[in-house]
Amino acid sequence: MNLSSIIGLMTGIFLVVFGIAFNQTTMSVQFGTLGNFFDIPSIIITIGGTFTTLLTMEKSLQNYWGKLKSIGLIFKNPSNNVNETIARIIELSNTARKEGLLSLEESTANLGDEFLKRGIMLIVDGTDPELVRKILDTELSYIESRHNETITFWKRVASMGPAWGMIGTLIGLVNMLKNMSDASSIGGDMAVALITTFYGSVIANLLGIPIANKLKLLHDAEIQEKELMVEGILSIQAGENPSIIEEKLKSFIRPSLRKAGENDVRGEVIE
């Protein structure tokens, strides 16, 4: 589990609740005031409006559901470990120099990463180096495009939340102005007018923006690790010395993490 995301989100929720419930006059927490911020019409307008608008923009329900589920990624530790990847590539390089490129076919059974496995199989099949790079770069472009769609989805959550909050505010104000003669309805209409703006801001700043930024960090780390794999695969195919390959691949890692085996870079963004 990724503690930074869990602690950040839970602390954010706690601070909002604490800010609402804390009474500065009595210096005490009064949870009864939380009820003032619970309004069903406002929830329907803001949350319902935000996520139904995003549903309208999607190609299919399956795509929509997949992007919603991506929220789970921010609570998991990234599986990429660049030092382990470099060590694996060096091991493959040694095997190729001793036993030839064809011997790598057997080694692919132990490779967990499908991208690396696909690249190794291409060179085992004797594919031209330029074509290998082109195929892998195309796959990288597809991965980037797919990730950017998901990141954009959460950026839209951040923009749609406040927008629907403003719509709720206008609905509340119009209802209030039309029913000024009925004093009993003014409070409810005013609540809708103000709380929808509050809900919209919470959706944007507690969910949309943090999730989009976290997914961008995970995306950058994955793409840079795969770019390292491409260089490693092509270096193996070119028959380069393993020590030269290692030095070349370490240039993808920031200097403080270049001592292989001494630093676990799991979860770190490659700089």
Mind explaining what this structure looks like?
Strand 1 (22-23) and strand 2 (28-29) form a beta hairpin. The protein contains nine helices and two strands; from the N terminus they run H-E-E-H-H-H-H-H-H-H-H. The chain has helices at residues 3-21, 40-57, 61-69, 82-99, 104-107, 114-124, 129-178, 183-237, 242-250; strands at residues 22-23, 28-29. It is an all-alpha fold. Helix 2 runs parallel beside helix 8 (183-237) and helix 4 (82-99) packs parallel to helix 8. Strands 1-2 form a two-stranded antiparallel sheet.
Compile the SSE list and pairings:
Blueprint: H1 3-21, E1 22-23, E2 28-29, H2 40-57, H3 61-69, H4 82-99, H5 104-107, H6 114-124, H7 129-178, H8 183-237, H9 242-250
Antiparallel strand pairs: 1-2
Helix pairs in contact: 2-7, 2-8, 4-8, 4-9, 6-7, 6-8, 7-8, 8-9
